[in-house]
Amino acid sequence: MSDLEKEIDAYLNGEMTPEMRKVFEDKILNDTEAKKEFELYREMNTVFDDTDWELTEEASQHPKIKQSEAFLKSEKGKAIAKSIQNVENDYFDTTSQPRKKQILLYVGSIAAVLIIGLFIFFQSKYIINNQSLYAEYKDWEELPSLTLRSGDTDLAKAEKLFTQKQYQKSLLILEKHQSANDYTINPQVLIYMGVIQLELNNAEAAQKNFQKLLQSNSLDAYKAHWYLALCYLKSKKIKKAKKELEIMIKDTISFKDENAQELIKKINNQK
Amino acid sequence: MTTQKHDDYLLKSLITGDESGIKKIYAKMYPKVLAYVSKHDGVEDDAKDVMQKSLLQLSVRAQAKDFSITSSFEGYLFTICKNVWRREAKLSKSRVTNPKVIDLIHEEREIALAAYEQEKWELFQEKLHEISENCRKVLQFFFNKIPYAKIANELGYATENTVRQRIFKCKSKLKEAIHSDSRYKELKEL
Q1: With helix as H, strand as E and coil as C, how does A194-243 read?
Q2: pLDDT digits (tens, 9 = 90+) for B124-143
């Protein structure tokens, strides 16, 4: 690493005194190459921060931006925007039903309310049960992709099967992948396998995978607590579920902290 | 229809503005986008906005002849939606801290900017996946502001100082990889 890179690093990490910052900023101003280098490091800091977004100068005259803008203002661009708007309008029109159907729906809902009321009456102790909490808090659509842009075709296949809820088939491919790559643990694969086993009502096997994830040295190890909590919830081990959630809230990583807090509250309210 | 063919059909309908295809995209994606946006402090109107902007942004970029999607259409579009929502969050944050910024920017420019930023984001992500796995891990921690001590602990480094040195080296490697890619140059030149 060059001296310039060391300076850039210190600057971006906020490790310079105000005087040093001033000297550095002057230096950058007068040196185009250094400025470019600084700019790239600064961009990296924002682009790779998952909670941030790198915005471009609003008045930028970059040809790509100008070209896109011109297209959007053209007849064709406007026609496409109009089509998208039409589709949105249609979508929300059909989700709100026509009148006749609405009346039927209304009558139907009264009946449903009555039935649910009776059900609650008999089940008053378990208004929300653990299964429904599990269903409410699982969110598999949020799982990161197994493949990103380029990658393993087997994993791509497994992921596709997963989204189509063909869990058994997906699991087979993942297990094969895992046994072929015995020494490198892919945390993503572990998460997918665990989730599938959970969906297939095999909470014990799921737990094993999440435990493995927890003990791995991977970037995603801390996520295991959340998934373990879901496992325990599903197999009605409430105390254990709460324990995992509490670990999540106490650690310094903010992964799903809000969900964990909410879920603990709901579990407590059940009793 | 095979999945690939179906994906091609969806992309094509976005390029040409074919409503029946876009309808299919909308029906499939909107509930997911709504779930995501609601989970990240947004409401229904935000979800609609994200959906529209993302579809239009993708349509604009896909007009280029050399444009292609290497993952699934749905996954790709969902990534764009997530990024559009991050962009909105960042914009509203900078409006709060800098009330002088008056929000009068035209929608066309807004989408053109977002398309450009998305292209840069994708290039950076691609480059991050080209460096060694070890480097990638340590940098993902670093860029997401995980403390050095925690990184040392997670990845089994002896001291915080070793972590710092490792981050130094990896950042430099990643910077070099991005810098030497002609696409980066193209994104930077005026």
Answers
A1: HHHHHHCCCHHHHHHHHHHHHHCCCCCHHHHHHHHHHHHHHCCCHHHHHH
A2: 999 999 999 999 999 999 99
Global pTM reads 0.62
Query: What CA–CA distances, in Å, run from A191 to A129, A199, A241, B151?
Result: 25, 12, 17, 21
Helix/strand/coil (H, E, C) string of B25-92? HHHHHHHHHHHHHHHCCCCHHHHHHHHHHHHHHHHHHHCCCCCCCCCCHHHHHHHHHHHHHHHHHHHH
A17's CB contacts (< 8 A; 6+ apart) are none
Q: How many CA atoms lie within 13 A of A246 on its CB side?
A: 8
A20 shares contact with chain B (CB less than 8 Å): no
Return the closest-CA partner of residue A210 out of A237, A235, A183, A229: A229
pLDDT in tens, A150-192: 456 788 888 888 888 888 888 888 888 877 776 667 788 888 8
A31 touches chain B (CB under 8 A): no
Q: Do B51 and A88 touch (CB under 8 A)?
A: yes
| Cβ <8 Å between A217 and B156 | yes
Which amino acid, one-letter code, is at A44? M
What is the token pair recorded at A33?
Answer: 């190459």
Selecting from A54, A87, A141 the residue whose C-beta is nearest the C-beta of B32 gives A141
Residues in B closer than 8 angstroms to A58, CB to CB, are 105, 109, 113
A45 touches chain B (CB under 8 A): yes
pLDDT higher than 80, residue A233:
yes
> What is the interface size between A and B, counted as CB pairs within 8 Å?
177
ipTM of this predicted structure: 0.92
Joined tokens for residue A71: 């297209």
User: Among residues A271, A270, A263, which one has the least CA distance to residue A244?
Assistant: A263
Least reliable range by pLDDT among A64-73, A157-166, B90-99, B119-128: B90-99
Q: Which of B28, B125, B44, B45 is nearest to B83 (CA)?
A: B125
